[in-house]
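Help needed: design a sequence for this.
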């Protein structure tokens, strides 16, 4: 079965950085786009960033452009999200999933129905 395990979240102060990791098993990782989403209490899930199968194409939601960087290491079956200059508005549960596609125009859709359990990111002011 497909399994995703996110890690790297925590409690940080505004302006600090975190690096999230997502390790995937149960599929041919290098053949699939990967994405990160986040959800804060009382708010709908928001697609944050995605990366295509070979890392040659990336997408970011406008609010994180210039601050977040997505990358992948196909040899480790892992996708990363480097988050810098964090603000309280970035707080939420960050989840990872293989995607049907990564595009500037289409919403991120998990390949296998849902996002992973997630890792909590809390940014204090």
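Sure. Designed sequence:
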């Amino acid at each position: 079965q497909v399994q995703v395990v996110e890690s790297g979240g925590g409690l940080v102060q505004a302006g600090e950085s975190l690096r999230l990791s997502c390790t995937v098993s149960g599929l041919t990782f290098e053949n699939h786009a990967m994405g990160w989403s986040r959800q804060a209490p009382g708010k709908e899930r928001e697609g944050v960033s995605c990366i295509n199968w070979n890392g040659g194409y990336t997408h970011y939601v406008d609010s994180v452009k210039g601050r977040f960087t997505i990358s992948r290491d196909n040899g480790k079956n892992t996708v990363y999200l480097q988050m810098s200059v964090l603000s309280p508005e970035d707080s939420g549960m960050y989840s990872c999933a293989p995607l049907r596609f990564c595009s500037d125009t289409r919403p991120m859709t998990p390949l296998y129905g849902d996002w992973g359990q997630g890792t909590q990111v809390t940014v204090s002011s």
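The beta strands are 3-7, 10-13, 18-25, 33-39, 46-51, 58-60, 68-73, 78-83, 92-99, 119-124.
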